[in-house]
Design a protein that fits this description.
Blueprint: E1 2-7, H1 19-28, E2 37-42, H2 47-53, E3 56-59, H3 61-65, H4 74-77, E4 83-86, E5 105-107, H5 114-129, H6 132-140, E6 156-160, H7 164-175, E7 179-183, E8 196-197, H8 202-206, E9 211-214, H9 228-232, E10 238-242, H10 251-259, E11 263-268, E12 288-290, H11 302-318
Parallel strand pairs: 1-2, 1-3, 3-4, 4-5, 6-7, 6-9, 7-8, 9-10, 10-11, 11-12
């Protein structure tokens, strides 16, 4: 079996796939039941030759979206390919999957972010409760304006999206002694969540929340889910954190509600354009902290956890068992 790892070197260095990473994974994971050959490439140099014999491709969505990637006829370019492991959690950039042959599965990196996401959410909820975005806004203007805030314990948290990232936010809420509610497409209950709302009940759900965490993937069904009308239905002085996907949120409405004081603060770890251009009105928005999409990524563990998941799936594939983290073509995650 041939496993090929293809890099985009424009990604930050801690997220490169390297021969050293492969060697470390071989030594720290259980031996694979069969002969496996690994190759590593970069920036699609000599990519066609590697792809032609690959059984498994490990790469980022940036490679899949590159014009040189053979999305038009992947079956011919990679006749032996059986699954692609994306080192991203979000898969919206490669949707729809009409380019993916029927006999090839796509898996993502869901779950790799969980521990760091939980820590980041704890930090963010405490910061929002302490009105830190507002305090920073005053500091930037040399304004002495004391803002007194109560304990966070007992306040209500609404988590929109209850997958791996959402459940990290649920855990963060429980750590802080909060009452936790959730929104989920299926409406199915989740341990630790007092009530699960359907997306169609979002206006009702946000009326109860002191804090809202967006943790849902971006799909055709979640785009602009947290719309102007949803934001206008929030409890007075609620605060918001987005650790999911930017296009789930109406940013123009967010700016308006932060400026008029309806929302007390917001922290965005995902932005409508990354890097965020200097012309964006978000930079000058009061009571908003922009975190440049680093909240859930631990550079010391991200790639080792990625390789752990890859090796687990190689074991599954070689022994004829279902893979973990298969992306569903219908639900888009």
């Amino acid at each position: 079996m041939h496993v090929h790892l293809e890099n985009t070197t424009s990604k930050p260095r801690p997220f490169w796939l390297t021969p050293e990473l492969v060697d470390a994974a071989r030594s720290s994971n259980a031996a694979l039941p069969g002969e496996v050959r690994f190759t590593v490439g970069r920036d699609l140099e000599n990519f066609a030759g590697s792809l032609s014999t690959a059984t498994v491709l490990v790469t980022s969505s940036g490679v899949i979206c590159d014009p040189r990637f053979p999305r038009g006829d992947l079956a011919a370019a990679a006749p032996n390919l059986r699954f692609i492991h994306l080192i991203d959690a979000g898969v919206e950039d490669v949707m729809p999957l009409n380019w993916l042959p029927a006999n090839v599965q796509l898996v993502n990196n869901s779950g790799v972010h969980v521990e760091k996401a939980r820590e980041f959410t704890i930090m963010s909820l405490l910061a929002l409760n302490a009105r830190l975005p507002e305090i920073v806004w005053h500091q930037q203007r040399a304004q002495w304006d004391q803002v007194f805030t109560p304990l966070i314990r007992g306040k209500s948290l609404l988590v929109i999206g209850l997958g791996d990232m959402g459940q990290a936010a649920v855990a963060a809420g429980h750590t802080l002694g909060m009452k936790v509610f959730g929104v989920r497409r299926s409406g199915m209950s989740v341990p630790g969540v007092e009530r699960v709302y359907l997306p169609g009940q979002l206006h009702e759900a946000v009326e109860l929340a002191d804090f809202i965490v967006i943790a849902t993937p971006l799909t055709s069904g979640t785009r602009n889910l947290v719309s102007r009308s949803v934001l206008e239905a929030t409890k007075q002085s609620a605060a918001l954190l987005n650790i999911g996907r930017a296009d789930v949120l109406d940013h123009g409405a967010l700016v308006d509600l932060l400026r008029n004081g309806r929302l007390s603060g917001a922290i965005l770890d995902v932005l409508p354009q990354e890097p965020l251009p200097s012309s964006s009105e978000l930079w000058a928005c009061p009571n908003l902290i922009i975190n440049p999409h680093v909240g859930a990524d631990d550079p010391t563990t991200y790639m080792t956890e990625t390789m752990r998941l890859l090796f687990a799936n190689l074991q599954q594939h070689l022994t004829g068992r279902p893979l973990q983290n298969i992306v569903d073509r219908m639900t888009e995650y």
